[in-house]
Every structure is written in structure tokens, then in C-alpha cells.
Write the C-alpha cells for this entry.
Amino acid sequence: MVRVFQPENPLIVQSDRSVLAEVASPRFGTVRDLLGRFAELEKSPEHIHTYRITPLSLWNAAASGLTAEAVVATLVAFGKYELPQNVRRDIVELMSRYGRLRLTKDDDRLLLTADDEATLARVAGHRSVLPLVRRRIDARSLELPPAMRGPIKQALIRLGYPAEDLAGYTDGEALDIRLRAATAGDDAPLSLRPYQREAVDAFHAGGTARGGSGVIVLPCGAGKTLVGMGVMEAVGSSALILTPSTVAVRQWIDELLDKTTLSRADIGEYSGQRKEIRPVTLSTYQTMTYRRRAGGDFPHLAVFDQRQWGLIVYDEVHLLPAPVFRATADIQARRRLGLTATLVREDGRADDVFSLIGPKKYDAPWRDLEAAGWIAAANCTEIRVALPDEERLAYALADDGERFALASRNPAKLDVLERLLRAHQADSVLVIGHYIDQLETAASRFHIDLITGATPVRARTALYARLRRGEIRRLIVSKVGNFSVDLPDVSVAVQLSGTFGSRQEEAQRLGRILRPKRDGGPAHFYTLVSRETCEQDYAAHRQLFLTEQGYRYQILYGHEVPASAGAEPGRGVGP
């Protein structure tokens, strides 16, 4: 019997591959996590969330082992209406394309093989593929120069036929690295959490052929660095680790010394201050993309060839700059691990992450880890702050390019910040912002230390350490604090301003405070936005990623934030 209408179900799947999800449905929480495996969240207002099923979302799902039948079954089981026939067929067709073309190795030859003649014929004659081909072997296979392994994958994914890379990887220089039985000062054995072990196994599954390249997606605070070290142990070879900052490099070094059998002599720092090449070498994206003059060469990209690396680790892979993509295209025979809290890229180059670093191998829903106690629960609040009268006039008269900056720098935000600091006077608070003058004003007004890009690395590290030890309870940071800052006991983050509608920045900033708290309490994440301005519109887009993970934002107005010490914002306060 044909099912026509199931009113209790939360999904409406439309013929344009958009999916509407009814938030109030009792089944929404379950289907949200399932949707996240094969669809992308586009909009998340109060009652109806909009997802879109895209080719890339389906190819990532296929690469992680999800079948078209499972995707269709989810949409059928949770749909209010019959699944449109074209959507069903699109899912089956698109997911079948992943792996229909395969890259393999035959002695020293790199081969592109197809399941059928028609597929190979469709792509082989395209102008983006022809220059990459050495010769046609037969109707189902081509030979390519080994150096074209990266470019061919980029070309094929843009044609809609992502190749499965089964050409294997070089072993690199052997390195004896093991996780310690216990960390320094801790008698308890060190072991990977169940989801961390699953992530390592998912990356390494298939050994030389299928295992060895891909992206692990875990929330900040869930131990991505430890997963990276688990992969290093499984691979057992020299490794180059690229990170967003020198502070992150130093934190990786500390973690490697604390949690692995490596000695300091095994670890090199390749940064602006040091140029050490050792069995495990750590550098930054900024160092890799440095050049002496505009349009010149990138001299430090030579690090990719200075040892026989068996593994390249890209920390915060969603930040990977274009020159590193180009270098990565040339080293496809080396294993590659991407670590990130979000695959969202603001530049639209997610297909390059898929083709050059590898597909998504593992993705743990944030709320699942929160329910298990691995990361802290988080209360997210957007506080809408009215512009003062004189600022409202300036905003109205400004052009579009100036309005966002005027809204972001709203001076009334500092009055709300003062109330939040009083309300959380017993907590450790991190204040984050984009505009240095705004942060300097806040630092001066509230007598709080400030870290910006101009702060020396040694001074930054010292301030972070003091915050961890509880010697200071307040710290203001610019966007340099978005990434790879280990602050386990900070329980409150206040976002004064951000980068337009950056979803990845929102995820990273919340991640600064998600490590479990000693008292078991929740984290608090406040975003201050200027009411009835473009900043409020951008804030709605920033929140998309966290909404996808199951977080909901409470909305308050600035005057609703209590001024009394110890009061909890949003409770017992009139409109």
C-alpha cells in the first residue's frame, strides 16, 4: 500500500533535494543526527530547519561507508510524504559515482580504471583530463604520470565523478612511536576513548590500499590531537604536522612529549623562530605560505620534500590555504590526515579537501559526546544590543561596507559585557573579538589582559598558562584565540564581534570552552550582536553549524541581562 501522509514524521523532502525538518517533532533529535551524515544544513530558524542533499555530501557519506539504500531508508522512514522519485534516483546515481573510477598502482604505473567503458569515455576526452593522461591502455583504463595523482582527482570531482584512490602510499621513514602507558604525573593508564579509537581505526581501515587518507571530524575539546597521535602510532613513520599557529605547534609538542614515547630530540619546530627538521616536524600554515615578495615563490613548501614523511597531519584542515593545497596535490603518495571540528569552508573549496586530503572518514555528533560526558554541555545565548542613538544615525548613513564594522563595534556591548562579568564573577571567562580597538577598550575598562596577533608567542603562552592554573580568571583574545588553544577550565566565552557570517569561527569559538568541567557544570557561550543591523543577519548564519549539532540559542535583549552578581542571565528577568 502506498503511504501518502505521515503527520507525526518531521521531514518534508522536496524534489530540489532540499529537506525541511520540523524542530518540534519528537523524532527530530534522532533524524537530525542521521541527516548530518549525508546532507548540509542551510537555514535554522525557530521551527523549520532546511537541509540540502548535495553531491559532495553524498560522496562523503559513501566514502564513510553509508549506502544509498540507507540514505533513502532514512528519508522514507522520517518523511511526512512520499519520497520524490527524482530524489531517490539522484541519491542512488550520485552515490554510485563514488568509486566507479579508481586510481590504482601497477608497479610504477599510475592507472585510472573504470567499471564500464561509458564512464571512462565520458571523462577521458574532457579538456581538464586530457592533459593529465599519458596514454590509453584499453577501453576501461588510462595510464597517468604519477605526479598527476592529485590533479586528476581534482579534475574528476569537478566533473562529478570522484575517484576512489587505491594507489597506496609510501611507508616513509620508520619511526617507533607509541602512546605512553600513563601520562606524566598520572598513574592511570592512557587509553583512547571509544570514539577516538573508532576514529583511528576508520582512518587506518583497509591498510595500504584503502586506509591512509581522509578527514576526522570531532568537536573542539574531544581530543583531536590524541586521535592524531593514535594515527601516528598506527602508521609508525615520520610525520609532518601543520597547524594554524606557533602556539598550536608548542601545544602539540607538549602533548607529544607527555603522551607518547618520543623524546625532544625526535621533534622539530619549523617556524619563524626555528628551522628544525626531525622525524616529527611541526610547522604552521603561515610559515608554509610565506614568500618574500608578492607573486614570488613559497620557499618553505620545500619542507614537504625534506624527509621521507610517511604521514602529513593537517590540524584544523578547514583553514588549509591555497598554496598548501597545491603542494598537497604533489604528495598524494603520502598518507594524509585532516583534523577539524567542521568541514565548512568559507571559500567553497570543500571539494579540494575531499580530493586532496581525502574524504570524511569519521564524524562524531557533538551532542552524542556531550551525552556521554566527553565534552561539556553548553548553553548558547545571543544577546541583541541596541545601538545608541548617535550610532544608529551613523549606521543609517553609512554604506554597506561600513555598516558591519559599526554594528560590531557597538559601544553598548561593553555595558552588557560588564553585566556578564558580574554575573559570572566566580567563573573563568574568555572574551573574544575581531576588532582590536574594541578589545583594547574592553581590556582597559575592565583591567583584563589582552592577547592579539602582536603579542609575542612567549607572552601568549604565559597568559594561557596562568588562566589554566587559575591565577587569572579573565582573558581577552583577538581572533588568534580561535584555534588550538587548550583552556580546559574556562567555562564562559563572550563573543564581542566576529568575522561576518563565518560558521567555522562560531564552531571554533564555542570549542574553546567545551572540555568537561571539574564541577561537571555546563559551559556558557554568549554572542553579542547589534539589534536590527546586518550583524544580526550574519549571526543567524554563523549559528548554522552549531544548530546542526543540536545546540539551540536563547535570545535575550541587552537590558534583560541581570546586573547583580551571581544571577544567571535569562532567568527571572522581565521583558
Remarks:
- The first strand starts at residue 11 and ends at 13.
- The chain has four domains: 11-97, 101-165, 194-364, 374-560.
- Residues 246-259 form the longest helix (14 residues).
